[in-house]
Specification:
The complex is a heterodimer of chains A (110) and B (116). Chain A is mainly β. Chain A has strands at 5-7, 10-14, 19-24, 31-37, 43-50, 55-58, 61-66, 71-76, 85-92, 98-100, 104-109. In chain A, strands 2, 4, 5, 9, 10 and 11 form a six-stranded mixed beta sheet that branches. A five-stranded antiparallel beta sheet of chain A has the order 1-3-8-7-6, with no helix packed on it. Chain B has 116 residues and is mostly beta strands. Chain B is 0% helix and 48% strand. Chain B has strands at residues 5-7, 10-13, 19-24, 31-37, 44-50, 53-57, 65-68, 75-79, 88-95, 106-107, 111-115. In chain B, the strands form two sheets. In chain B, strands 2, 4, 5, 6, 9, 10 and 11 form a seven-stranded mixed beta sheet that branches. In chain B, strands 1-3-8-7 form a four-stranded antiparallel beta sheet, with no helix packed on it. Classes of the chains: A mainly beta (110), B mainly beta (116). At the A-B interface, strand 4, strand 5, strand 9 and strand 10 of A face strand 4, strand 5 and strand 10 of B.
């Protein structure tokens, strides 16, 4: 069963705008990761945030984690057409599997 | 290093046939995972290997599914007596030895299975 739930399911923005995606989960986690999947391609790891961290940056990406609310957000600043993809959050717990959400489909219009 | 590779990339089979997929992880990675992804959904965990030991299996992995990693390198996923509901993308991922469970996974391109 999937743990993370992304919101919104789909997002369409203009190039240059910021995109914010949210992820909620249900059980305790050790870490939360965000992945990107382009149409017809494999998943690519974007960023990992541990349960004792609140915010992390990587280039144009900013991830926050609120363990009290069991939620995370991914912000992409100054979006580009190449950012068009599906974005998934995945939670890691004490076992060895990761639980993915259904994803947010982001479309960046040039 | 060419990343995680999977073969075949596409497989079309008739219901009731057996199929086998192969995954070659990144060479120094001792952890290997199989996932299944259907259209519009995120990947669903199937099973996990650390070296040659299969340490986790999802309840999604019915008795028709079996996975092996005999020498701790490549892995195979076999589906016996395929059903139309098995049609999906089967993804393999690997990750390096690490501390605890805070690690990223490197995914292959997947094998798309169509059962007719």
């Amino acid at each position: 069963s999937q743990q993370g739930e992304e919101d919104p399911q789909a997002l369409s923005i203009q190039e240059g705008e910021n995109a914010t995606m949210n992820c909620s989960y249900k059980t305790s986690i050790n870490n939360l990761q965000w992945y990107r999947q382009n149409s017809g391609r494999g998943l690519v790891h974007l960023i990992l945030i541990r349960s004792n961290e609140r915010e992390k940056h990587s280039g144009r990406l900013r991830v926050t984690l609120d363990t009290s609310k069991k939620s995370s957000s991914l912000l992409i600043t100054a979006s580009r057409a190449a950012d068009t993809a599906s974005y998934f959050c995945a939670t890691g717990a004490n076992n060895n599997d990761m639980r993915f959400g259904a994803g947010t489909r982001l479309t960046v219009k040039p | 290093d060419t990343g995680v590779s999977q073969n075949p990339r596409h497989k079309i089979t008739k219901r009731g046939q057996n199929v086998t997929f192969r995954c070659d992880p990144i060479s120094e990675h001792n952890r290997l995972y199989w996932y299944r992804q259907t259209l519009g959904q995120g990947p669903e965990f199937l099973t996990y290997f650390q070296n040659e030991a299969q340490l986790e299996k999802s309840r999604l992995l019915s008795d028709r599914f079996s996975a092996e990693r005999p020498k701790g390198s490549f892995s195979t996923l076999e589906i016996q007596r395929t059903e139309q509901g098995d049609s999906a993308m089967y993804l393999c991922a690997s990750s390096p030895p690490g501390q605890g469970h805070s690690y990223e996974q490197y995914f292959g391109p997947g094998t798309r299975l169509t059962v007719t």
